[in-house]
Each structure stands twice: as structure tokens, then as C-alpha cells.
């Protein structure tokens, strides 16, 4: 799933790119497998992929620098609400773009049962999705209509 993110420069944990989380946190089996085959372990040390931490003597692996960061469940890099269309509960287009890209494909149908200002439908339209919007408020119907008509210009 390709979700567009703002580029974030990451390089280890402030320890020069060396980290021990993989070995001692999530995948202790990796270290155990390496220890079973000393030749592989020695080769990884000689290639600079694994080292013993000079202070703790615990094995660490090299974390290569990357320009993107994996998406987690805390989306603090996009705003939650905006007031571009002056609607009280309007969600940001960035947030809905991420949700729609992550959960549908072009040509899919997107449903918003509480459409409000029509942000979901507008973003779905821009991303090549079909959409259904539902709302019973007169202000919501007016806001959706105005927004979608402006989208075509």
C-alpha cells in the first residue's frame, strides 16, 4: 500500500545509525539464528552490518538512512480539521486523501453517510473514485453542492 507521506529524514536512534531493537526487541530469533552459524555472524560483522556496542557489548545492527518514515497509527503530520469551506466539522483534505488512498483503489466506491461539507466526496473525485454522500442538513447539502461545482472549475 503506497501512502504518500511527508519526507522525514531518519537515521537510527541518535547512536550513529546503530540500533539493537531488532535483535533484542522484536526478533530475538534473528540473533539466535546468527549465533548458530558463527561464519554468517562473523561475515556480518566484517561487512559492517552488525557490531558489538562498545559500551554494552550487546550486538546491534546498522540502520541505513532513509528519506521516508513508515506510517504508524498516530497521524500527527496532517491536520484533522480545516475551515476552508466554513463548515463546523470539516475534515482536512490531506487526512481524507490518506484514508482513501490506503483503503480503496481508483474506480472503487466511497461512501460518506455523514457528508457535511463534502470533503470525502471531493477528495474521492480527485483520486478517481466514485462516491456517495448522504446528509440531511440544508447547510450540508448547500456546502456539498457548492464544493463539488467548484471542483470542476
UniProtKB/TrEMBL annotation:
Residues 75-142 form the DNA methylase N-4/N-6 domain. Keywords: Methyltransferase, S-adenosyl-L-methionine, Transferase. The keyword Repeat does not apply. This is DNA methylase N-4/N-6 domain-containing protein. One of its GO terms (biological process) is methylation. The keyword Methyltransferase applies. GO terms for molecular function: DNA binding; N-methyltransferase activity. It comes from marine sediment metagenome.
